[in-house]
Amino acid sequence: MPDAAPERLTVPRGAEELPARLFAPPQPVPGPGLVLIQEIFGVTDYIASRAADLAALGYRVLVPEFYFRLGETSVEGTGEGVLERGMALAQRIDWEQTVGDAAAAFDALRHRPEVTGAGVIGFCWGGGLAFNLAAVRDPDVLVSYYGSALPDLLHLAPEVTAPSLHHFGLADSYLGPEVQERIRAAIARPGVTIETYQGAEHAFDGPMPGLHDEQASMAAWRTTTAFLAAQLPVPGRG
Length: 238
Known about the structure:
With 238 residues, this protein is of the alpha/beta class. The protein has a single domain, classed as Alpha/Beta hydrolase fold, catalytic domain (Rossmann fold). The chain has 6 helices and 8 strands; from the N terminus they run E-E-E-H-E-H-H-E-H-E-E-H-E-H. It has helices at 45-56, 82-92, 95-110, 125-136, 177-187, 214-231; strands at 7-13, 16-23, 31-37, 60-64, 115-123, 142-145, 164-169, 192-197. An 8-stranded mixed beta sheet has the order 1-2-4-3-5-6-7-8, sandwiched between helices. Helix 5 (177-187) links the parallel strand 7 and strand 8 (192-197). Helix 3 (95-110) packs across helix 4. The longest helix is centred in the C-terminal third of the chain and has 18 residues, at 214-231. It is globular. This is Carboxymethylenebutenolidase. Residues 19-230 form the Dienelactone hydrolase domain. InterPro entries: AB_hydrolase_fold (IPR029058), Dienelactn_hydro (IPR002925), Dienelactone_hydrolase-like (IPR051049).
């Protein structure tokens, strides 16, 4: 985690204000930024830790709190009922309105004077939302971890032109082999990289028992950071 706590700010959304957290890199110099999009559990300690990991690499990381209209920020923990509570929250928000929220957050980040380029990274529910955002904006890079909404968003594939990295576990019980093959066929093009992990379940990077796979998580993170370094480099970092 970085020494400094993230800055809390808001992004205008008509008459509303979208809360967000901005994780700053160690050196306050101009550089690239990323919008990081949550899982169904909201902006949890896990999501904040991933934002901090990226900030430590030199990125400015904006993390919107998409459940703000519900009066919620996150569902913490990994015990009984957490998955059901997260799913219930995700089902209560309007998808198109949330895409607009994500676009507003991306615009706010990209137009900050110290930001020299902007990408998007999302996990699970956020992996699908990141893909949708990439279809309506022009990020410099897209990273999607096992995007759970992707099967319903494949019609947007022609609009997603950013260099893209997608991660999938080969033992994913939510996005099974046939679904993954359909996703692969729809999104395949020059500039798209698809990485798979033998034996890994859905949400293998997160902390949920029965889903987390340490080996797959570490391998995917190495691939993610190398991909970002190539496609959205931080000045001064080799």
